[in-house]
Amino acid sequence: MAKITKLLLASHNRGKLKEMTEMLKPFRIEVVSAADLNLPDVEETGSTFEENARLKAETLAKMSGFVCLADDSGLCVDCLQGRPGVYSARYAPNRDFDKGMDMLLKEIEATGDKKRSAHFACVLALADPNGKTQIFEGRVDGHIQPNKTGDKGFGYDPIFVPDGFGKSFAEMEAEEKAKVSHRGRAMEKFIAYLQTGTV
Ligand code: IMP
Prior knowledge:
It is built from six helices and seven strands, in the order E-H-E-H-E-E-H-H-E-E-E-H-H. By secondary structure, it is of the alpha/beta class.
C-alpha cells in the first residue's frame, strides 16, 4: 500500500471518531469522516467483527476513492456467551446506552455469575480503493461492575473495568484509556504499519 497522506474514517460514531482522530494527531495525515463526505452508514451484515470492518472499509474506499479505515468493535460478556458482541450498538434501544447498560446489568445479574468477566474487541480494516485490505486487532480484558461510574468516553464505558485498574473506562482520561483499550491496541498496530509498512 502506498504512503497514506489522506485517510477516510468509515464511522458515524462520534465517540470512535474522536478517539481515532486524537490517536492520529501526531502523524501527518489528513483525516476525513464518512459524514464529512456525506457517505452513507454501511449496514453491518457480517457475523464477525472482521467481516463488518472489511465490509465498511471496502465499500467506502470504493465509493470515495480514498484509503479508508473502519473499526468494528463491541463488548463480549463471558456469562452471556460473548453477547452483545457484534450487536453491541444494536443491543441498546435507539442507541440509548444508558438503557442498554441497565438491560445488560440485569441480564448479567440473572445469570448469578460472580466473575462478570468480559472483554472489548476491536478490528480495524484498512482498505485501499484498488481492493487491498489489511486487518489490525486489539482486545482488552476486564469485568462488568454492578453500577455505572464516570461520565467520560462513550457506549458501555461506565460499566467496564479493565484488568489492573480500579475504575471504569468512563473514569479515565482519553490518553489513559487509549493506552489499554481494544481500539488503542489495534490503532498501535495500524500506526506501526504506517511507519514501517509491516505489521
Ligand atoms: P459498531 O462497531 O459501530 O457496531 O459499534 C460498536 C459498539 O460497541 C459501539 O456503539 C459501543 O456501544 C460499543 N463499543 C465499542 N467500543 C467501545 C468503547 O471503547 N467503549 C464503550 N463502548 C464501546
